[in-house]
Amino acid sequence: MKQENILLAQLKDGYRYNSDSLILADFILKCGIKNELLDVGSGCGILGILLKKFNEKIKLSMIDIQERNMQLIKQNLKSNHIEAEVFCDDFLNFNTQKKFDFIVSNPPFYRQEAYKSQNLHKNISKFQSYLPLDEFISKANSMLKPRGILYFCYEVLAFDKICVTLEKKKLKMTKICFVHSDKNEKARLVLIEARKSVKSFCEILPPFFVYENGNLSQKMQTIHSRFILESYDF
């Protein structure tokens, strides 16, 4: 496939994507996806669009609770010549007969005690109170096909709760990768692959460092060269 820039409209006064979505997309593509895929909490659509751009065979569906994001998603799908089924709904209340082979998400994961702004769009996109972890995992589990796979990232401080919740919902953590700002910093993010109704062992991947010696790491540079993004205000 000939590489081309990925055009992404973003809200000037709302939540804007960051490197977490790029790192998660790279992780998912390396692990593998196919068939029916649902992107939960799509925002401007960056995660689903990246996955579809680099794997045209997936059948992409996207859901977000905010009407303003629907405008962004539809614009970005059109700009990048991508087809997807788009839903404006609360994921926790979402009803469909369809089951998915894959569910992917960069969900809101900041805790209640973290500082909230006066911008509701940013708050909904960032804070876990709008999509609690246990409810998110439970709903994802109910919408996955047998042996379906959930990919998501989350703040590493919640790792113990993630393990307990996945176990309770009979989702087996099969791959994890811890993301650090650099080798001297504690992990801040964890990338997770969890499979439904399997007994596989859990593979702990090498840590991902965003920076090395004050510069972008080689891994991060590779991601930027793979996902050539061009953003503009909408």
From TrEMBL:
Segments passing through the bilayer: none
A Pfam family annotated for this UniProt entry: MTS
GO molecular function term, any single one: methyltransferase activity
Keywords: Methyltransferase, S-adenosyl-L-methionine, Transferase
Gene3D superfamilies linked: Vaccinia Virus protein VP39
Ranges of residues in domain Methyltransferase small: 29-131
The UniProt record lists the keyword Transferase: yes
Keyword Ribonucleoprotein attributed: no
A biological process from GO: methylation
Protein name: Methyltransferase
